[in-house]
Design brief:
By secondary structure, this protein is α+β, with helices and mostly antiparallel strands. The chain is 29% helix and 34% strand.
Length: 149
């Protein structure tokens, strides 16, 4: 009625479990979500030198762009040497774990060089903030990471 466990059964059990494991791994790889950072990756790569030039100009300022985060508000403090100039910024809030939570915001600094972003689009977690800003005819680029609680 019961067969003894021998080499033949051991080999069959090993190969059977290996096949089941491989089928499980194939299923896991088809279910996993993969996203690119941006759909237009090649086009952005061609413009990357412009972004490096903007970053160099931003690093050349005596003071850097700074920010503070509280609740669902992000306060950008533009360098003091740019006060009185027309400072405008386009900000991409990039969520690495879910592209559906990415969004863009535009803002202009007030006379004190401050721009406050208040958005209900912020969800709890980390965002990579990419700030493309201009003061007069000069353009700058700064990026950083913020955490929304």
């Amino acid at each position: 009625m019961f067969k003894k466990f021998n080499w033949g059964w051991g080999i069959a059990l090993f190969y059977g479990s290996f096949v089941l494991f491989m089928l499980f791994m194939v299923w896991c790889s088809t279910v996993m979500k993969t996203e690119l950072v941006t759909a237009d990756y090649y086009g952005k790569e061609l413009k990357f030198q412009d972004q490096l030039d903007k970053m160099k100009r931003a690093n050349g300022l005596s003071d850097s762009l700074s920010w503070t985060v509280s609740d669902k508000k992000v306060r950008l403090n533009f360098p003091a040497e740019l006060k009185g100039k027309n400072v405008k910024a386009e900000i991409l809030f990039y969520r690495p774990d879910n592209s559906l939570r990415d969004f863009n915001v535009t803002c202009s600094a007030d006379t004190a060089g401050i721009c406050v972003i208040n958005s209900d689009k912020f969800k709890h977690g980390a965002y990579k903030m990419k700030v493309d800003w201009s003061a007069g005819k000069e353009t700058y680029f700064t990026e950083g990471v913020i955490n929304i609680n």
